[in-house]
Batch of 2 targets.
Target 1
Amino acid sequence: MNKLLKLFSPNFLWGGKQGKGPLYRHMFNYSRLWRSAVMLTALSAILPLLAITWFDYNVTQKAVESETLSRTSRTVSNTKRTISSFLAERKSALDFIVHDNLYEELIDPVRLSVILESLRKSFGGISDIGVIDASGQQIAYIGPYLLEGKNYSGQDWFKEVVERGIYISDVFLGFRNEPHLVIAISYELPAGSFYILRTSIDTDRLNEQLLNLELGAQGNAFIINSKGVLQTPARHHKKVFEKIVIPVPEYSSKTEAFQYNDPDEGSQILGYAYIPDTPFILMIVKNKNEMMKSWHKTRFEILIFLSIGILIVMVGVIGFATFFVNNIYIADQRRIKILHQVEYSNKLSSIGRLAAGVAHEINNPLAIINEKSGLIKDIFQFTDIYAKDEKLIGLVDAIHNSVARCGTITKQLLSFARHMDFSFQPVDLKKVIREVIGFLGKEAEYRNIKTSINISQDIPEFKSDRGKLQQVFLNLFNNAFAALSDGGNLDISAIRIRNDRIRITVADTGCGIPEKDLKKIFEPFFSTRTTVGGTGLGLSITYSLIQEIGGTLEVTSTVDVGTRFIITLPLNAKMIKEKNNALTPRG
Amino acid sequence: MRLLLVDDEEEFVATLAERLSLRGIVADWVTSAKGAEKMIETRHYDLALLDVKMPRVGGRELKKIIEKKLPGIKTIYLTGHGSAEDYQAGSAEAEYYLMKPINISDLIEKINDALGK
């Protein structure tokens, strides 16, 4: 779990451990690298996804819309047929009457009333019937009003029926105050004259037909005339004869459907058809939103799909980017650690060369002083003249002692430098430790730090890398000195264990290391002394140096009590080194 | 017993020879490999005390020349310098490899040791 969390929140995202100095100059800006990796991959993955989804969205929407239109247009077409046949039936009935009856029979009121009765029985909703002669005079009439003898010759419908042979009127209220329409047909008499049979039909039947249509989607079917006046009641608060808001659509012989934006009710789908031979236009209005409900569901599904797609892509992209950038980061950290180590040992070997040079240059004059003062002393001792002069002998001895001291220092320097580049050779542990302590001797003296070296007698000379051992001890002792307050103790002890190993313990009575830091002290760049010039590399290098010579380094510490470093070294490092090389090709 | 001291530092080598003679050890000294070659033409030496680092011909080279002329001669190297190879090779080739400055009694001890071997 921790590991998973670390995968998504690695060190580099929070800036990583960045140090100062030339080595860090060429490090990547990892969080920027990560950001651009995420952005580029995410873009290249998500853009096509978005494009496809957008395309699919549009195609589906168009398909649903055209399906909606064609569905509406189908309904309109069917309804148009119903309405047409409704009117055609009545017209055919009139046709039948004029063909079945002679003019003389029709103008007989008794016969006419029988016909009216038959029509009512067959069709219903027929309120009256009349016969009008060529002059426009109503010759016979059966119905609720006294319209016999009325002259229609001046009226428009009369002219139209004469001209076209049939007339279907708009719906009107008339005397009865009932919406109805009039159908009239003309019949030519053999004599060359003609007469007109006219009947009024209630629109109730028609209304019923329209109202009973199963439209769904808050659909609304009604008929308007060519002036846009409602001929049948519309479902929503529109009364007959009211002018509808929708502009009268253009004439078309086919059924048409289009979208219409109603200012009150929003988007509507509107289908219409002109009913042939009538002034009527059938209209069906449906709420677009209702019709598109299935589309809304699909749209929601597309969006869900898109979101899940983007989510998966992002998780993948972020996971991969993090993984790769983290690998670069780790590789970089390792590279810097190695560079540091190289730099560090370079520095150390330059110091060694310098020391050797100085020591050598000083050694020769020192040797001359030594011999000259020696000769003076010899003269004193071998001749009697000055033999008794205590003071002169004392002076010569002082010179001698100083020369010896200088000699010790230069020898130490030379010895340190000489073993700097050495690989495996016999090592006297005691000597190495004493040599390194020698460098810190003065500081120990000034700060009153007591060092004790306790090396078990059964430790033989063993083969190891003397230079590396020196470096290891120098680092450990330096650390101990940094941790120790004045007057503290540094104990170095070594024992032989399991016959083939040496355990060296470097224990100080210093400030100790807190538990939480203890795990990290061998990591490169971990330092609590950053402000006072620590690089955070000393222990990391020490650790890898000990590994290189086949040993292990452990640490135990108690805050305010002290720290104990335990080095375990093999007595026969050669064998282990070979194994070590084979085991750690990644260095 | 006769010693040959070779060192490019005349002040050092002359004084050392004088001090040794005070202690009854006969020691001739020269300041170059050339001088040393001349000396061994005419005399036999039991032990050569050679400076490792000398101009032109160094102590290690000189040792080979001397050994050709005087097989069985013992050698002690004396040096103010201590390069890694010199130390390794020197301590292997010669009886002793000593660092300047050296205590006279230590030196005499080593000389006796070398000759006693």
Note: Residues 78 and 98 of chain B are 5 Å apart (CA to CA).
Target 2
Amino acid sequence: MRAVLVSFRLDMARITVSSASGFVPFLLPLLFAVIFGLAGRTSGAADFATGGVVGSVFGVGTILPISAFSYEWLEQHGRMNGIIPADRTHQVIGRYLTLPVFAAIIIAETTLALAILHLTAHGNLNGLAQALTTSVLGSTWSFMVFELVLFPLFYRWNDMRKALLCVAAFFVGVAVLVTVTLYLVPEDAFNAFGDAVAQAMANPAVGIPAGLGVLVVMTAVSLPVSIVCRRRKEF
Amino acid sequence: MKLIISSVSGEPIYEQIKDQIRAAVLSGELAAGEALPSLRKLAKELRISVLTVTRAYNELADEGIVENIQGKGTFVMSQGTELMKRRARTRIQRIFDETCTAAKAADIPLLDLMAMLEASYKDQS
Amino acid sequence: MTTTPPMALSVTGATKHYDSGFTLEDVTFDLPAGYIMGLIGPNGAGKSTLIKLILNMIRRDAGQIQVLGLDAIADEEAVKEQLGVVFDTSYFVDTWSVDKVERVMRGMYRTWRHEAFDGHLRRFGLDRGKKVKELSRGMQMKLMLAVALSHDARLLILDEPTSGLDVLARDELMDILAATIEDGERSILFSTHITADLERAADFITYITRGELYFTGPKDEFEDSFRIVKAGLDLLDRLPAKACVGVHHYSTGFDALVRSENLPIFPADQIVVEPASIDDIIRLTNVGQSSLGEV
């Protein structure tokens, strides 16, 4: 629908910054890759390095959707959103459409960063392929899950401080969930379960449909909630 | 055509416009069949509201001095001049009636009255 | 050529209750196509609330709003295609260049007139390379106006566009607006508390005060229906209670806003009568209601 595209284009225009300084955060993971790679040469701690690099891409990636919201919040109650020929439902859908774009960006940057890591660490791209399927897909999937939880919260509380509290709450919530689970479930069983899931996911035939399935279900909940929150908002 | 509007004269702007257009038609400055400036253009140039000009044009049309032709504009009616001459005559007749009543009441003879009229007419060049 | 609906904007019984207690109550007015309407009233009267209702930025508690013959809620997207909006401050991302603003806005609308936009930029003296944040307030307003005039919008809504601008800039804007409605195809709703701007170009006035509609209709009729009466204080005591709409006392006399039809009440030899300007009318219908508080 045209209106959805209009909203999508507006959000993308808000996020793609014209000044050079906007790109700097996205160079940081590449920098980390170089640093970790150099460190890894000596200590051989490649796994840790992979985690660090992937994590940094994830962290930087979260700037993208927050930017779409924050321009709206900062610019006097989203007056631009009141002017464009797209109603609130279409505006929300348009913003959700930016998520696959961001996922693609995350995949691309993670791949690039890991390539740099391997090249810096041991001069070739051996082991990159394996790192890709596990780390890249995993981090991208986590990113999507993260945003699908955050979006309704951002639509509900239209405020940068509250948004960051939501982000913090998300991590705290996950930590609490893990702690509680560990408390209730014996560690062996938890680890066994974890290993079984990891093994199953590692098989693309299972992992990919399952991962997508979870995202679809989450979207089916997240999107309507966001729409309701946005439609209720008074500007 | 010259149109000068005063915002402080106390006379409503639409009346001023009407007066000045009537004067222009009477003097021949605006010829029969000639178009008046477009409503909106005049409003923009005089820096007044479109409705004000519309009212002036409509009232002039009601008087028969101009004609509004949908989609074309407003034109001076060929009998515009005639009409106004007739109006002027009626007004003058009324003034004469009043003058004569006043003159008789003050015992001023007709000849004196005519001399006063002649002096007045020649005075205004 | 598309047919222009007779009413550019039709508001019927618009009502909005805020939790704070402020209420916009039952506002009804029409703006015929091809004219400029000034939306006036003191600060906090409800003008911005009304504009937000038209833009569907807040929820309507009652009433109907039709823009160019379409319902403001049911046909929101079709309405906004034809709506050009100018606010008192820029709504663009301030790191965008003027050129980027065009690239963004042309993607928003079905029809985008590049040559028209270019022409406006040149006329307004806007440099494509400049970023929005580098533009002065007046230039930012002109940028919003350039956008509003470049996508075949048939109704322009300006919400306090001249606040913060000097006399020259305001005068220039009124010239631009008069030129905009010259072809009779476009209409303008102009909300302002600087009523001097409207003395010139406004055709209609809608006057809102304390959340209620006080008057709507031709501007000439508005001004004509009131007079300012000035007289000595001794006269004030002898007048019937409702003779004046609003009175401003001072030590040597008073100014009163009086409805024209009530003029005969006053003894002609004891008063000075003057025409009432829009400012006078607003001032004297809000005596004691200053936003600075009771004086």
Note: The helical segments of chain B are 13-27, 39-46, 50-63, 80-105, 110-123.
